[in-house]
Sequence to fold (388 residues):
Amino acid sequence: MMEFLYIVLVFTIGFFMAGRLAKQMKSNISYLVFITHMFFSFLYFVYAKTHSADANMYYYKGLKEQDILFVIFGTGTDFIIFLSALFQKLGFDKLSLFFLFALFGFVGFTYLVKLLPNIQKKILGFPFLYVALLLPGFHFWTSALGKDSLFFMVLMMFFYSIQKLPSRFLMLSFSFLTIALIRPHMGFILLLSSLIALFLRNPSKFKFSHLLIGFIAIIVLIIFLPFVLEFLNIEQMQMEQINNRLEDFTSYGAEMTDDVSSYVDMSSASIPTKLFAYLFRPLFFDAHSVMQLAASFENFLLLIIIFGWLKSIKFKIVKWYKAFNISQKIMAIYVMIGWLILAMGMYNLGLASRQKYMLIPVLFILIFDTYYFQYRRSVFIKMRQKKN
Fold:
C-alpha cells in the first residue's frame, strides 16, 4: 500500500513539474519528456530483474543495512546505499525507489531546459531541442536507482546556480556537496574547472584577485589530493603506481564485466582514439547485442551533432572559448578535463555509454549557446544592413 502511495506521489510531483515547465517552454513537450523518462525507468526496472545491474546491489545492500544508516554513510557507492536504505526505511519498495530516482533525473531535465537558450535549430530535420531531450540512452541511464540520475540532477543544479550568484549560493553549495558525495573525483574536476576558469578570466590584466584565486586553488588542491589518491588507491604520487592503477582499471574491466562483448582493450590506444571511443562507441561495427545496436544509432547521432557544431564554428575552438562568459567557460573546461580523465580509465563500452552523460548534457548547453550566439549575431548584422 505504501509503495502504491509513493508511486502516486512521485507521478503527481512529476506531472506538476512538467506542467510548470510547459508554461515556461510554451510547449507540451515537457509532458512527453516526463512520460518517456518514467517509461525508461520501468524498462530499466524490468531489465534489472534478469540482468546484473548496479541498481540491484544498491537495493539489496540498502535492504540489509537499514538499521545501521549512519554507520554506512560515506561517499560514492556507500552514499547511494545509504540513500537506498533511508528511503526503504521510510516505506519505499524497489519499484517506487526506481521511480523516485527517475524523478531526480527528470528534475535534471527541467534544469537542463532552463539552461538551454530558446533557439530554433534542426538536426536531420528534427528540432534540436526535441532531439536533446528525447535521446533514449539519456533517459535510460538517468532513470534508475543509482548514481547517474542523482548526479545528473545536481550537476544541472550546479550549473544553473552559477548563472546567478550570490542569490543561488545555497543551491550551489547543496549541488556541489552532493556531487562530491556521489563521485568525489567529479567534484574535484568541477572545482578545478571553476578555479581555472576564474583564474584565467582575464589573463591580459593581472589583478590581486588572480593571486587570491591562485592561492585558494593551491590550498583546495592540497586538501582534495588525499581524497583523489584514495579514490585511485594510490599511496604516493609516483608514475609507477599511477600506471599500475590504470592497468588495474583495465584488468577489472576484462574480468568483471557481465557482457564480455562490451569490453574493449584500450590500454595501448592513443589519447585521441580513447577520447573518440568514450563519446562515440559502440558504433555499428561494435554492436553485438540489441542494446549495443540501439546505442550505436544514438552515438552516430551524437557524432553528427558534434561534428556539425564544430563545422559551424569552423573548428576554431579557442576562438569559441574566448567568446563565452565565465559560467560557459567553467562548463567548457569541465567537459575537456572530465572527458580526458574518464576516457583514460575507460575499459567497457557499457560503462562509457552510461558515464558519458556526466558530460553530454553540459556539451549540449555549450552547443545551444553557440548556435544562439550565431543567431543573435546574424540578426544584428541584418539590422545594420537594413539601416544602411
